[in-house]
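Troubleshooting log. The previous structure file for this entry was overwritten by mistake, so regenerating from the original sequence record. Sequence copied from the archived sheet and checked twice against the printout by T.R.
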Amino acid sequence: MRTARIARKTHETDIAVEVNLDGTGAYEVSTGIGFLDHMIEQFSRHSLIDIRCRVVGDLHVDQHHTCEDSAIAIGQAIAEALGDKRGIGRYGSAYSPMDETLARVALDISGRPYFVWKAAFTQEKLGELDTELVEHWFHSIGQAVGITLHIELLYGTNNHHICEAIFKGFARAMRVAVELDARKGDAVPSTKGQLGG
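Regenerated output below.
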């Protein structure tokens, strides 16, 4: 089983994360930020990666540490569960429509984190979540896993739809990238013989 557990405690957050890359999209998420919970749940359900994530953060300060550290911890758990990445699809991409919105996500679990973000919000909050932290969440998880990650909003007006389309697109792209390809056997998907490092 490609599973991992991460416990991460700082002066700002106390986090426990478990992932199963070969799951069914089951989730238990509690970050203290309702809309962030909803987005991580969407990521789990549509990637089929089981995620348990509990965060106790310094929300009396603001949401930044909780949002960032949840992404780091989930990313670290995914990276650990991937191991040396033998047999994975490695690449994934998805067009993700939600009503009037269309987002595109493309990624490579290359071990070389790089991030391109071409999206924007027209309101400061979604529920309790500061929308400026959405970009930062994806930057943080990409760094932690080691993903070349490109996210682009093609069009859309409803901020909830924009955010959800991006998370679901990321989920669908990750589902393809982390799945094992029987034709690859246990080969690392790189002519270098390794990814990252």
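The longest strand covers residues 13-20. Archived copy saved in two places this time.
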